[in-house]
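Worked Example 4.2. Consider the chain below.
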Amino acid sequence: MEIWINPACSKCRSALSLLDEEGAQYTVRRYLEDPPTAEELEDVLRRLGLEPWDIARVGETAAVELGMASWPCDKENRGRWIAALATHPILIQRPIITADDGTAVVGRSPESVRSVLPPARPTTG
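Applying the procedure from the previous section yields the following structure tokens:
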């Protein structure tokens, strides 16, 4: 499992705490320092079942400067959205968790973070 985080983000810190509490094995990717490529974004979007505009933070300064809020959300402009997210990773919603089973979630709530954890094994005693 990998989690894309911005350490300054409270939702990211909460997700990491929950993963630690659950004993999850994961790798941290500080995506502002190690930005995803367009190909990685395509893969994550496929796993999320979302489009690039669904994970874009259009209120960020960079998005406002680009005028992203007025960009069409359609097939013809999809590549433009992907390129903007790859060029300006601050625009990507966070945290994004990619699970070992091929699924992914935007982990903004405890429920979404828990949804990618493997089922608890019954304890025997």
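The mean pLDDT is 94. The beta strands are 2-5, 27-30, 96-98, 104-106. Compare this with Example 4.1 before moving on.
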